[in-house]
Amino acid sequence: MKKRPMCTGSESPIGLDRRGFLQRFGGGLGGIALANVLHAETGTGLHHAAKAKRVIFLFQSGAPSQIDLFDHKPRLIAETGKELPDSVRQGQRLTGMSGNQASLPLVGCPFKFAQHGKSGHWISDRLPETAKIADDLCIVKSMYTEAINHGPGVTFMQTGSQFPGRPSMGAWLSHGLGTMNQNLPDFVTLVTKGKGGQPLVSRLWGSGFLPGKHAGTRFRPDKDAILYLNSPKGVTPEGRRKMLDRLKDLHELQLERTGDPRIETRIAQYEMGFRMQASIPKVTDLSKEPDSTFKLYGEDARKPGTFAANCLLARRLAEQDVRFIQLYHPGWDQHGGLPGGISRQCKETDRASAALVKDLKARGMLEDTLVIWGGEFGRTNYCQGKFNAKNFGRDHHPRCFSIWMAGGGTKAGSSYGRTDEYSYNIAENGVHVHDFHATILHLLGIDHERLTYKYQGRHFRLTDVHGHVVKPILA
Hints:
This protein starts with 8 loop residues before the first strand and ends in a 15-residue tail after the last strand. Helix 1 (about 20-25) packs antiparallel against helix 2. Strands 2, 5, 6, 7, 8, 9, 12, 13 and 16 form a 9-stranded mixed sheet that branches. A 3-stranded mixed sheet has the order 1-17-18. Strands 3-4 form a two-stranded antiparallel sheet. By secondary structure, the chain is α/β, with parallel strands linked by helices. About 35% of the residues lie in helices and about 15% in strands. Strand 3 (about 115) and strand 4 form a beta hairpin.
């Protein structure tokens, strides 16, 4: 017998939504059905016991080089300057940026690797602080994707599809699980201030075809953390409360006439906005953190909008039970000047990323908080452009890349998957983006095949019609 989807939703024609239909249908079985619909829409049910309550995704936009950070390849280093073997490439597609090169010279990592902790994780010397938390990390070295360019690649990692318009991962979780804090958004986005690189657009944290209330809320690093949230000068909290009460009355009259479910979303968003006027200033004020916190995260954490400040803010949001916290740090797209470029990126992110894991662990929160670090794909093992072993670039490489996860029910101190001796193809235990998403949902208590939403005549899900939970990385 086919399992009935749970945590589902559906599109509704204006004029008669599902609630309206069931209300008109009457009591008895209609009332029971209404209760089931409301239960699904509020996202109050889990499919199995959850290991994680919340997610902090430290997304490194631009695609960090796995070869220079986590995937140690002595043979590649030894063969620097030699041509990429045809037996390794296997005629696979390259981007337009290096596909027309007459030569594809191999270039190994110019940095030193060492093993760390009881786990023996191989980690580059560009990440000295991450190396100190090696035994807390589950490093997946066999991620892969079909996307070969940034736009589709980032979209795929965030939404489960290369095509714009699908709900983001945080939106799916908001839809499926609901909120844990009525005074804050359940999905918050933070973007490092002043960083160049590939453009980051709001659809990456959008709700797609899900109701708009599930979209991520972007916090900005200034006095107006959320645009248009604060009241104009001269408007008191009491006056705003009266205005919202009267507006709600008008909206409810319109809802009674039309049955448009979007009006309910509008009412809920106005009420959330009013509550956030008090809650947002408190959670975003880092000034009351002790000096020991800034010693842990680094002095950059005192500067609003830095990656370090955003990591600290992520911890504060997690303490307030925000469900999904998405950080974006652009600038990892090193087609040239990689040794200097990746060193700068690591300097900006290494300490704070490790500090976040340490901080959560010290507070007893790492156990039920899943922290993820990674980008949209990997980098090539050959030099893009003219060969220079000391100052080179790497092109996009979707066939293998590395990410790490910590806490939230993952197996600490473990490594999963393996690439070939050149970090070009996966040799063992490949993990597709859909598998990655299925595993995250599983850790949060969700069966990825059952978290669906009906749109344009079919049931959609984050993993589309694919995905398998990667059980060996579960604690």
